[in-house]
Automatic annotation (TrEMBL):
InterPro entries: CheY-like_superfamily, NreC/VraR/RcsB-like_REC, Sig_transdc_resp-reg_C-effctor, Sig_transdc_resp-reg_receiver, Tscrpt_reg_LuxR_C, WalR-like. Residues 152-217 form the HTH luxR-type domain. PANTHER family: TWO-COMPONENT RESPONSE REGULATOR. This is Response regulator transcription factor.
């Protein structure tokens, strides 16, 4: 049986070694490497292909959410499992929208549960603790659905890739600040993009933007 190949990314040396010691006890998991920040993780993945990356959120330089987006742009097949002390739902939303397959909070999982989570995300499942609210899951579902549907439709013709991303987040109910945090752009830039989107689609509000997409989807 092939082992699940893991990269551990955390700026805390003790945390990295603790995770390694847990996982190396499992016969079906192999820790291939460690990285102390997002930049090092991206460099490592350029040369190697892990099955699962254990990713901290808060790190100096490139943080875990930005690194998740960068890694998945490089190698979409890699699964990212966030391991962090941060448990607010806005951060969880940003991580999952960036493409993370799972989100675990330190103190809320055992070594055995960590191993199970690694296996789960490697197999294509989602693992999130603490429990995510129904409202947040629905927001993620709507966002992913809207982005997928508009990406395949003619609505993208007048829009740039960035404008499509913003339109999808608008459809998910995200505010300007949340869109900026998710896409790592300033709120002023978000507003400028939205004005351009409205002009291109000849609409005047978020409600009209959502209605436009739904109307287009029903006609496609």
């Amino acid at each position: 049986m092939s082992r699940i190949k893991v990269l551990i990314v955390d700026d805390n040396f003790v945390a990295r070694r603790g995770l390694r010691s847990f996982l190396e006890m499992e016969k079906d998991i192999s820790v291939l490497g460690e990285a102390a920040n997002g930049n090092d993780a991206v460099s490592w993945v350029k040369e190697n292909t892990p099955d699962v990356v254990l990713m901290d959120v808060r790190m100096p330089g490139m943080d875990g959410i930005k690194a998740t987006s960068e890694l998945l742009n490089l190698k979409p097949e890699v699964k990212i499992l966030m391991l962090t002390v941060v448990e607010d739902q806005t951060t969880i939303l940003r991580a999952l929208l960036a493409g993370a397959a799972g989100y675990l909070v330190y103190g809320q999982f055992t070594p055995d549960e960590l191993s199970l989570a690694v296996r789960a995300v490697a197999a294509g499942h989602t693992k999130v603790t603490p429990p995510v609210s129904h409202e947040l899951l629905e927001k993620i579902r709507r966002s992913n659905s809207q982005i997928h549907s508009i990406a395949e439709s003619e609505i993208t013709e007048p829009l740039t890739v960035r404008e499509v991303e913003i339109l999808g987040l608008i459809a998910a109910g995200a505010g300007n600040q949340e869109i900026g945090q998710t896409l790592y752009i300033e709120e002023k830039t978000v507003k400028n993009h939205i004005n351009v989107i409205y002009s291109k689609l000849q609409i005047k509000s978020r409600y009209e933007a959502i209605s436009y997409m739904l109307r287009h989807k029903s006609n496609s």
